[in-house]
Amino acid sequence: MPIDAISTSRLAPLGRLEPLAPQAPEAATPAGGFATVLNGLLAGNQQANAAADAAVRDLATGNAQDLHTVSLAVAQADVSFRLILELRNRLGDALQEVTRMQV
Questions:
Q1: Using CA atoms, how far apart are residues 83 and 17, in angstroms rounded to an integer?
Q2: For residues 51, 54, 60 and 64, what is the CA-based torsion angle, rounded to 10 degrees?
């Protein structure tokens, strides 16, 4: 199709774009910020484990639709667990570094 054959009558002009509204900065929680994040990660891990257990149970009883969904749920639970494990390892390393500091 040659370029000359394209008519401009089918092309509609774009409307005027509205500027984005400025977003208010998120207020940092002075107390419990890290604890809130950590509790959220732990709750997410528990949900992922429960979903993986339910998916494996459904596969064993024959209620699962496909193996892909089950393996995806198990992989998500594994990644969630590895994240928490790595966080624990990093926090342990940081604590060791702090205890080695000379005052």
A1: 41
A2: -70
Question: Own/partner pairs for 64-71, CB < 8 Å, 24+ apart?
Answer: none
Cα 77–Cα 79–Cα 84 angle in degrees, nearest 5? 95
pLDDT value at residue 11: 63
Between CA 63 and CA 58 the distance in angstroms is: 5
Residue-averaged pLDDT of the chain = 84
Q: Which of 73, 83, 82, 84 lies closest to 51 in space, CA to CA?
A: 73
pTM to 2 decimal places: 0.62
pLDDT at position 65, please? 79
